[in-house]
Write a structure and sequence with these properties.
Length: 225
């Protein structure tokens, strides 16, 4: 059972949110020995490296330009993992629960489906563009060593593919149960408060839901661009 939260990020804006446990494995099963299987295998390696880099507080700065570029790419990949984790997990879940604030269930489901429709279209379009870029960079994409193009394009192509499949499954194949959530209702009401009070409520709700990363997610989504 996958638990997804329709998190208020404004007075009338909502985002689907999922926070994976820290010990949650990111590996993707790899079958066969073809080009795509090798990409999935490299994708698994990148996920492990990015997660390890995220937890390491002090890493010696690489001395070469390519080494520094690869390190920066690992940081970027680590940030993208959290963004796409929900969609990746939707590919494997049979059922899911959508936790909602005090909204009519039909309205909340419509918002959720609109979000997944946007995700499906976005990741499909990015998949096409990044696949073309990967083909152009194919001569170096699978070469061992610190090649930045190989790391970035492999991650983005496989990541967008898995995210697209997850969004489509969430839209058309998942069995959803919708339940009200008092904490999310408190969070929705917080957007009528001043900035300091709203910040306290966001932190309190994240603590009550045992999702420490949610507070940062909401703050980032509500920050002016």
């Amino acid at each position: 059972m996958l638990h997804v939260y329709l998190v208020p990020v404004g007075r009338d804006r909502y985002e689907c949110y999922y926070e994976a446990p820290e010990q949650d494995e990111a590996d993707e099963p790899v079958e066969g020995r073809g080009f795509f299987a090798r990409m999935r295998a490299k994708f698994n390696e990148q996920l492990k490296e990015a997660e390890q880099a995220r937890h390491q507080k002090a890493i010696e700065e690489p001395k070469t330009f390519l080494g520094r570029a690869q390190k920066r790419s690992m940081r970027w990949i680590a940030a993208r993992i959290a963004d796409q984790r929900l969609l990746w997990h939707l590919r494997k879940a049979e059922t899911a629960t959508l936790h909602i604030p005090d909204l009519p269930a039909a309205e909340a489901e419509a918002i959720m489906r609109a979000n997944f429709k946007w995700d499906a279209d976005h990741h499909r379009n990015r998949l096409i563009l990044h696949s073309l870029a990967l083909i152009a960079a194919a001569p170096i994409a699978l070469v061992p060593g610190p090649n930045v193009l190989g790391y970035l394009f492999t991650f983005t192509v496989v990541g967008h593919f898995l995210a697209w499949r997850g969004a489509v499954r969430g839209l058309h194949q998942m069995a959803w149960t919708i339940v009200p959530n008092a904490e999310l209702t408190d969070l929705r009401r917080a957007f009528s408060l001043d900035a300091a009070a709203r910040h306290r409520v966001i932190s309190d709700v994240a603590h009550r839901l045992h999702m420490p990363k949610m507070a940062r997610f909401v703050e980032q989504m509500t920050a002016p661009t």
